[in-house]
Write a structure and sequence with these properties.
The structure holds 2 protein chains of 2 kinds. By secondary structure, chain A is of the alpha+beta class. Chain A contains 25 helices and 20 strands. Chain B is elongated. The chains are: A alpha+beta, B alpha+beta.
Chain lengths: ~675, ~180
């Protein structure tokens, strides 16, 4: 018997309309666990670097984490992967909600989509019955609208539906896959789904998920629940309100937005507005939220309430929102919260990423102001600010006029527009729009996280280590008292000694070796979560979470029957991390791609930054070009990667990286249809 | 003669307004009732279901009650607080009209047993796992008439007497005992 996982994948060839239920190799579970790990392996094995995002050979994989659907709180994540149209690298984005557990109960760990359907279809999975159904009547419908139509026509009110909207159908590079309460938004997965003419995947299951050692598993789950109750009663003092508790930042529950509105940049990630958060604004926004938010919502089997039902019309729930999408439209447009919540409803129905979409629209308006775009490029655009954003959103998701260019995101749009537009696409890493943060002093940990994170999103690599030191040593000492989560006591010392000013402050503190350890620890936790399907909100993201490196090996072992301790789980995670990287290196990613936006910090330290990256690469077992060394690959049972790298010249004997290999030239700026 | 006696009534209070729709109750219920205990999870086997209609903002935890052989003649609709509920949204029955509260393999009806177990739990598992407090547990003592303990023979005779009348029964007994 297979435990925690089902042991079957669903292979769907849209070109031929063929569907197969395929048993998986237990050895791959031992090597890569599940979720992101086994996704990365699939891409390595089946998607060579020549495959372009909109090729029928690009895979779109919905991979549940190995613990998804088990009683462990927060195990509900699906890792969606494809070659991203935006980065042209191996892209992965996660969604919570209810879809993953339904898929597991239906009897599958992953849905692997290949090919392209001749007509718009949707996939309906109900246990052993799986079918492709006509979706021509869903063309142009919103993500939630489509889900409703599908549930009604199937007479399955509790089917979980992941769907694309107009943006996905029209291959907008930042199109999302929406799933009601949750979404896989980053890196344009929705565009690939649209390219494959797959409107939605609806799923409902009624099968068992088995646990290898039930009594032990439940003991850890119950312990975690008790800890969550304790932690909710004892929020962390001295940090911004949204980060005091567990879960993803509590944007839906908390009204105090001083920190975001005054520290994040407005517009096209440009303007810091010190003193913005007045009593008047606070009252107005609180009132907006209290009026428009009708219920706080959880994902499958999670006591946190990170989402909310938002009403923008006569319905009690017009759509569901989570996290920082609360403010991205508001701040992109220099508007108020009500505008943000209203336009987000349209954006959610169209299915676009809430980081990239508002930034792309603000970018377009900046170009207009700068005269790089003109009124002729925007015929019929309203004069009022908010009206312009609605207009731009509509053009983008329909790919009409200037929208057709903007739909490729700021990086590609700037190159298409030219005339100096590149300067305005200033907030990207690996061609992808980032959180609108513009700060003063370089932070060495964040430098490495921004540079080397391959999810290309800071929230998917930062986490358990506080973002800033607490002002006094007493406060820091208090914080570390019950900090059982750290790998060892050195981390406590690094934090306690971290000062706001002076010798022990950024950018030269933490020391480089400590910085490497801290960054690595935080990333490791995310990679574990992305394999188990545990939500980062109960593990890798918040301070002092219920799940951490000391109890996750026990949880995973008791659930799956694998025998993992901290060392072996760490080893497995390194393997997965390097395999994700291997996919990208093979596609031409190089050290020079690993840079935060030039203006992310005012004060930069090029020499220090070089040393940080050198040392971190070394720490990771990578050579100076960021390529895992042959030795390190062999140690991780990734000999096949080493062999491929040697053949491609990405690695050479003696491990000296080629200065500028043919392989990287060919695919890093490779042409796209 | 009967004597007044205390009887413990077990109550799960359901506050649908507090439900955040996480389905932890379904998960832990199915897990607790698995054999061996906690060896598998499957909300389709759960004796509690959250009737969900997110876009109508409807989240109602419902417990499995008695099996009923026939479905209702009609389906009523309720409108409460601007939300329209199907009558089945509140119904506890395992019934032919829907697939809830039936074992997925056998189709046999499921019924909430308040997690009765040995040793007994402080609270049913669904309540323990509902950190939102949409489900809370209460035990109430009620005065209950003490039931007369009826022996097997007594019960049989009573049934015969009810059917044939005491006179006929006594006639038969005296005839047979001769």
């Amino acid at each position: 018997m297979r435990y925690a996982e089902t042991g079957f994948n669903l292979e769907v060839d849209l070109t031929r309309g063929n569907i197969e239920r395929v048993p998986t190799d237990p050895r791959l579970t031992e090597l890569h666990l599940g979720g992101l790990g086994t996704n990365a392996r699939l891409f390595w094995d089946r998607v060579p670097p020549e495959v372009q995002p909109f090729s029928p050979d690009n895979l779109l994989v919905f991979g549940t984490g190995i613990l998804v659907g088990t009683p462990a709180p927060g195990t509900n994540r699906t890792i969606v992967s494809c070659i991203s149209p935006q980065t042209r690298l191996f892209g992965f984005s996660m969604m919570g909600g209810f879809w993953g557990p339904e898929l597991k109960h239906a009897g599958y760990d992953k849905v692997i989509i290949r090919g392209k359907s001749p007509e718009l279809v949707y996939l309906w999975i109900k246990d052993d019955k799986v079918e492709l159904r006509d979706a021509s009547h869903l063309r142009g419908l919103g993500t939630l609208e489509s889900a409703e139509v599908i549930r009604q026509e199937l007479d399955e009110p509790h089917a979980a539906v992941a769907s694309i909207g107009l943006a996905g159908e029209n291959r907008v590079f930042f199109a999302s896959i929406e799933q009601g309460r949750s979404s896989a938004s980053r890196l344009g997965l929705g565009a690939v789904m649209g390219d494959k003419k797959l409107k939605a995947i609806a799923v409902r299951g009624s099968g068992d998920i088995n646990i290898a050692r039930p009594a032990e598993y439940m003991e850890i789950c119950n312990e975690a629940l008790r800890y969550i109750v304790h932690r909710e009663k004892n929020p962390i003092e001295g940090v911004m309100p949204i980060l005091r508790g567990l879960g993803s930042p509590q944007e839906m529950a908390i009204h105090d937005e001083k920190w975001h509105t005054e520290n994040f940049a407005w517009g096209n990630a440009r303007v810091r507005r010190k003193g913005f958060w007045t009593k008047e604004i606070s009252e107005q926004w609180t009132n907006t939220m209290e009026t428009m938010r009708t219920r706080l919502l959880s994902c499958h089997n999670c006591p946190m309430k990170c989402g909310a039902a938002i009403s923008v019309d006569t319905r009690l729930c017009s759509y569901m929102m989570k996290c920082f999408s609360k403010l991205t439209y508001t701040m992109g447009a220099f508007s108020d919260l009500e505008f943000g919540l209203r336009i987000a409803q349209k954006a959610t129905e169209h299915g676009v990423d809430a980081f990239s979409a508002p930034q792309t629209m603000a970018f377009a308006l900046e170009l207009l102001e700068a005269g790089i775009l003109t009124e002729q490029d925007m015929p019929g655009m309203p004069l009022d600010n908010e009206g312009r954003f609605y207009w731009l959103l509509d053009r983008i998701v329909r790919r009409e006029g200037i929208g057709d260019i903007l739909a490729d995101g700021t990086y590609w749009a700037a190159r298409a527009i030219g005339k100096g537009a590149e300067e305005y696409a200033h907030n990207n890493i690996k061609k992808t729009e980032q959180l609108p943060l513009k700060l003063g002093m370089l932070n060495p940990m964040y430098y490495l996280m921004y540079s080397t994170g391959e999810k290309v999103n800071i929230t998917q690599i930062e986490g358990n280590f506080p973002q800033a030191p607490f002002p006094t040593r007493e406060e820091r000492e208090e914080f570390v008292k019950d900090w059982v989560h750290v790998p060892d006591d050195r981390f406590k010392k690094w934090f306690v000694d971290w000062e706001l000013r002076g010798k022990n402050s950024i950018p030269h503190y933490p020391p480089i070796d400590a910085t490497c350890e801290i960054v690595n620890w935080q990333e490791k936790l995310h990679y574990i979560d992305d394999c188990t399907g545990m939500c980062a909100g109960l593990s890798s993201f918040p301070y002092k979470p219920p799940f951490h490196i000391h109890n996750l090996p026990r949880l995973i072992s008791a659930g799956t029957g694998l025998d993992l301790d901290e060392d072996s789980l760490t080893h497995l995670t390194r393997r997965n991390r390097d395999l994700v990287r291997a996919n990208n290196l093979r596609r031409g990613m190089t050290r020079k791609d690993e840079e935060p936006p030039a203006d992310h910090w005012k004060r930069r330290f090029p020499e220090l930054e070089t040393r940080l990256k050198d040392e971190y690469y070394k720490f990771k077992g990578w050579n100076n070009d960021g390529v895992p060394t042959r030795e390190s690959l062999l140690e991780l049972d990734l000999e096949f990667v080493a062999k491929d790298f040697m053949e491609r010249g990405i690695l050479r004997d003696g491990q000296d990286p080629p200065a500028d290999s043919e392989a990287s030239k060919a695919s890093s700026e490779g042409s796209e249809s | 003669m009967t004597r007044a006696k205390k009887k413990v009534i077990k109550i799960i209070n359901i506050n649908a307004d507090k439900c955040n729709g996480c389905r932890a109750c379904e998960i832990i219920c199915s897990s607790f009732h698995a054999t061996p205990r906690y060896s598998s999870t499957n909300p389709a086997r759960s004796r509690i279901r959250v009737i969900r209609d997110p876009l109508a903002d409807i989240y109602i935890p419902v417990y499995a009650g008695e099996y009923t052989a026939a479905e209702c003649a009609g389906r009523d609709k309720y409108t409460i607080g601007g939300k329209e509920y199907d009558e089945c949204a509140f119904c506890r029955a395992s019934c032919p009209s829907r697939d809830v509260f039936k074992e997925p393999d056998s189709g046999l009806p499921l019924k909430c047993d308040m997690c009765e177990s040995d040793p007994s739990l402080d609270e049913p598992m669904c309540v323990q796992w509902c950190l939102a407090d949409a489900l809370t547990y209460e035990e109430r003592e009620e005065e209950a008439p003490e039931e007369r303990i009826v022996g097997e023979l007594d019960a049989g005779l009573e049934a015969l007497a009810n059917k044939h009348g005491w006179q006929q029964l006594m006639d038969a007994m005296s005839r047979m005992s001769k």
